[in-house]
Amino acid sequence: MIKNRDGFSSKLGVIAAAAGSAVGLGNIWKFPYVAGQNGGAAFILIYLLFTFLVALPVLLSAFVMGRSTGKNAVGAFKSVSPRGAWKYVGLFGILAALLLISFYGVVAGWTTEYVYLALTNQLNLGTAEAYQHLFESRVANPESSIFWLAIFLAFTVLIVISGVKNGIEKYAKLLMPLLFALLLVLAFRSITLDGADKGIDFLLNPDFSKLSAEAVLSALGQAFFSLSVGIGTMVIYGSYIRKDVNLQVTASEIALADVAIAILSGLAIFPAVFAYNVSPSAGPGLVFITLPQVFQYMPAGYFFSLSFFVLLFVAALTSSISMLEVLVSFFVEEYDMRRKRVAISISLVIIVLGSICALSNNLLADVKLFGLSIFDLFDYIVTNLAMPIGSFTILVFVGWRMDQNIVKEELGLGKRINQMGYNAIMFLVKFVAPSAVLIIFLNGIGLLG
Ligand code: PHE
């Protein structure tokens, strides 16, 4: 390992930072509406299955790869297989991280604007149409979308510039407990409303007849996206983990925290939505259109609405930090560049790409590539291509290509390895998870008919 390499100082720091990466817009903004559109509890069950049997083995493999090599995703592939083609998958991951932060930043920018609107009490609008109009007008406005994207990015860059221990870890330790506390308060408020039971039922009572093949595919996509795997994030975070931290336990705790927060978000949203008789299937507008409307009916709505958007902002921030870190660490380690300079230069590129995404919702709405708007195209490349391809590759690499003694040592904390647990994990890593990814991926891109 490189001498004096920055890293996480404690196990708690690892959990906060990696769970901070995992818990994001994917849990609070995307999960509830995707679950809502795909039949609620039945979708959630499949999603849980994928998280623990497929995405968690990927997370663990990424940690093994990162910690054993002490490198970013590209460097890690290169140090095990200098002449192999693996590193190109690493590079694809780096590119995907750039596209991801560009469109994620746009949604995070809307979130930042809604924090401002909630704070200045501008979310008391009365009718459903007024909320719809507000959101659509924000999305349709190029200047404000780009302005709020830039503000959000500024927070991200400032934290990443401060480094791993004094930036990423420090803020994650501060922000994650805040996020959890806010979410608990909101979920408690929501499930204690009169008429909340319909929402709880919708979320926890499975109806398998609503489960389509497409829903199964989006459950897998959601599992990868939510655990931040497949594009190098967890490899670089793994490289910052100290040798005395148990990876199996840590990865499992992160996965548990991630799904717990997704489900808690559902519990914060749906009971309230049903209690006030608002439609649960609003899609991406669920948290921006439906929720503020619900909050205005609640006593102390100002407080709950502000808490919710702060929560969403914090979740997005700790995730985008990890995306930027993928890019920054790559240039710092592979090209010997300075962290601060790299972070600032990359953020300029992100502003340009992010602006194009933001404009694809308004001025550039007619520009379509492969039938998708630029925003949707970026999302498609990251979620449907880069993440499954990257995840598959990491599994095969750790399961079949890496020296198994090293893998065993990383998984077992030296000698004290539990042979049965190790065999079970390697069975998932070598066989179950890659076949599941392959079948679902090929089916998803239409190759299995
Ligand atoms: N897991 C994050 C979320 O749920 C998104 C993310 C994906 C972050 C990949 C980093 C890398 O919002």
UniProtKB/TrEMBL annotation:
Keyword presence, Ligase: no
Family: Belongs to the sodium:neurotransmitter symporter (SNF) (TC 2.A.22) family.
Main location: membrane
UniProt GO cellular component terms: membrane
Subcellular location field: Membrane
Membrane topology: Multi-pass membrane protein
InterPro entries, per database record: Na/ntran_symport (IPR000175), SNS_sf (IPR037272), YocR/YhdH-like (IPR047218)
Keyword terms of this UniProt record: Membrane, Symport, Transmembrane, Transmembrane helix, Transport
GO terms of molecular function: symporter activity
Name of the protein: Transporter
Stretches that traverse the bilayer: 12-29, 41-64, 85-107, 146-164, 171-191, 211-238, 259-279, 299-332, 344-365, 377-400, 421-442
One of the Pfam families matching this protein, by short name: SNF
Entry keyword annotation includes Hydrolase: no
CDD domains: SLC6sbd_Tyt1-Like (cd10336)
